[in-house]
């Protein structure tokens, strides 16, 4: 039985916040045992075009890069603990990029779970 606790959230792109429609584009995962943050994202352009044809995905690229940097301990959040960065990033926001609620899971190698979660929630 897998024995390592992890927490994850799904990153959602909300092209028009007032419509509350979203597209799953990424996963953030915090491994309790190794205290590591793992973050992956992919914007499925065809699905985005169907949802919001006038939305340019390049608008969010700098924010996705910043999130990735925060996960690696860089930038203004770099002085926070790993779990504090995870909590800060996944806090409820009403912006173009929003995370789902945080969910727990167990795995032998939590960092590898990101790929499984990306397949399950983003690459459908």
In short:
This protein has four helices and five strands; from the N terminus they run E-E-E-H-H-H-E-E-H.
Write up what this structure looks like.
- This protein is of the alpha+beta class.
- The chain has one domain.
- It has helices spanning 45-51, 61-71, 82-90, 110-121, and strands at 4-13, 23-31, 36-41, 97-99, 103-107.
- Strands 1, 2, 3, 4 and 5 form a five-stranded antiparallel sheet that branches.
- Strand 2 (23-31) and strand 3 form a beta hairpin.
- The model has no long low-confidence stretch (mean pLDDT 92).
Offer a few descriptive terms:
124 residues; 5-stranded antiparallel beta sheet; single chain; globular
Ranges where pLDDT stays below 50 over 5 or more residues in a row are none
How many domains is the backbone divided into? 1
Helical proportion?
25-40%
Task: Give the radius of gyration.
Answer: 15 Å
Q: Encode the helix/strand succession as letters.
A: EEEHHHEEH
The DSSP helix count reads: 4
Q: Give the amount of beta strand, in percent.
A: 25-35%
Q: Looking at the structure, what is the overall shape?
A: globular
| Multimerization state | single chain
What's the β-strand tally?
A: 5
Average predicted local confidence, pLDDT: 92
Largest sheet geometry? 5 strands, antiparallel
Measured between the Cα atoms of the first and last residue, the distance is 27 Å
Look at the helices and sheets and give the structural class: alpha+beta
